[in-house]
Design goal:
Blueprint: H1 3-9, H2 23-54, H3 58-66, H4 70-86, H5 88-107, H6 112-140, H7 143-153, H8 156-198, H9 212-219, H10 221-252, H11 256-268, H12 270-282, H13 287-305, H14 312-326, H15 328-334, H16 347-376, H17 382-404
Helix pairs in contact: 2-3, 2-6, 2-8, 2-10, 3-16, 4-6, 4-16, 5-6, 5-8, 6-7, 6-16, 7-12, 8-11, 10-11, 10-14, 10-15, 10-16, 10-17, 11-14, 12-14, 12-15, 13-14, 13-15, 13-17
């Protein structure tokens, strides 16, 4: 790897960082991630209705959750490279509009294949939004405030997912799951218009870099370590939270509304961890320590969540701990996209690879846990998948330690 790559990778911001943080742009960017994450939160409460209408088994229901991420698994980095060239702001707006279009397609689905196709397109739009977001943050925040901005950015997933988990049961009762899809489509359209009007002064923000940035990113170790560590985390998180409403209904007798509300709370406390992660990074805690420590604690919590020796109440409290602690990890990972980019103008390309890892974990987690539960007849063996994933994340964190502690590096 050439010396120029080492030089650029130490950079956290573009060549001309802003003199003052534009917090309005930061908050609007975070809000874009939040509304995009509505598309994840709307599904768990709708799963019982979707399973009945489309005759889906437990594994099929898992694919409704995870097929959303399939395009991101294979195309995240290519999308990132395209976004780096086309402009981060412009592509975030386009991603929101694509989500809206896909929501309409899903709402009109007469059979499961078209529902799955709509979910794939929603996933594409979501990936565009979350891959482009960090590029906007790098342009809007000063180097001093960038880690804090990434702490806020890390909260987009739990905030959006939890908000829609709370709202979706009532909306499904009122207008059905198809109406819920259409409401989300309308929200995406409205926010895209608001974002376009409110951030016009930010400019295009594209890059003139050629596609060789893909090769540079693939050759860099840092993005790979972040991506694979993130995959191990998202596998665990969506596997636990995606099926939590079903577990609460089956084992605690919770109503759909109560199960959705309790799941929403479990997801929402993840924000505590994301903000804590931002605070710890701001106070110069090593990134690898946050990733490794979080993974250890999540593995312990996973044992309690599926323990046959604990009551449902204690297992649910373990879910809250699992989520709150786990929130530290995505902030630590996502904040690494800028310092580990091979060049300052390849932040979205690097973040695209990281999001490929995220989507890989989300795609594999629910089907893997569902298949194990189906094969064994219970959820008791689910920690085998989760602990193995946590161990993988720890190994990549240790490798990241060696990379970030190399002489001459800043992080």
């Amino acid at each position: 790897m050439g010396a120029s790559i080492h030089r650029y990778r130490c950079e956290m911001t573009p060549a001309s960082p802003p003199s003052a943080t534009d917090w309005r742009i930061v908050w609007l960017t975070v809000a874009a991630g939040v509304v995009a994450a509505f598309q994840i939160g709307k599904v768990p409460a709708a799963l019982p209705v979707l399973r009945e209408e489309f005759a889906l088994g437990l594994v099929g229901a898992g694919w409704v959750l995870s097929i959303f991420n399939v395009i991101g698994v294979f195309g995240g980095m290519v999308l990132g490279a395209f976004i780096d060239r086309a402009g981060h702001r412009r592509m975030i707006i386009a991603g929101l509009l694509l989500i809206a279009l896909a929501g309409v397609l899903g709402a009109l689905a007469p059979a499961a294949p078209l529902l799955f196709a709509g979910r794939c397109l929603e996933g594409l739009g979501f990936t565009i939004v979350v891959v482009g977001g960090p590029g906007v943050l790098v342009r809007a925040a000063t180097p001093r405030d960038l880690r804090l901005a990434f702490g806020l950015w890390g909260s987009y997933m739990p905030t959006g997912m939890a908000s829609m988990l709370v709202a979706s049961p009532a909306l499904i009762d009122l207008i059905g799951w198809r109406g819920l899809w259409l409401v989300n489509a309308a929200l995406m359209t409205i926010f895209a218009i608001v974002l376009a009007a409110s951030t016009r002064g930010l400019g295009r923000g594209g890059s003139t870099a050629d596609w060789s940035g893909l090769a540079l990113t693939l050759k860099a170790r840092g993005p790979w370590l972040l991506a694979l560590g993130f995959a191990a985390y998202t596998l665990q998180f969506l596997a636990v939270m995606g099926f939590l409403p079903i577990i609460l209904a089956d084992e605690a007798g919770a109503s759909p509304a109560l199960a959705a509300a309790l799941t929403a709370l479990a997801v929402a406390v993840n924000v505590i961890g994301t903000l804590l992660g931002g605070w710890l990074l701001y106070h110069h805690w090593p990134r690898w320590q946050l990733i490794a420590g979080t993974s250890v604690l999540m593995a312990v919590a996973a044992l309690a969540i599926y323990s046959p020796f604990l009551s449902v109440t204690w297992r649910y409290l373990a879910c809250l701990a699992f989520s709150a602690i786990g929130g530290v990890l995505p902030t630590a990972v996502l904040s690494g996209s800028a310092p580990h980019a091979p060049r300052p103008n390849l932040v979205a390309t690097t973040n695209g690879l990281i999001m490929q890892g995220s989507n890989l974990g989300q795609s594999l987690g629910p089907p893997a846990v569902a298949a194990l539960a189906t094969a064994t007849g219970s959820w008791t063996w689910s920690p085998a998948v989760l602990i193995a994933s946590a161990a993988v994340s720890i190994l990549f964190a240790l490798a990241l330690r060696r990379l970030e502690n190399a002489p001459g590096r800043t992080h």
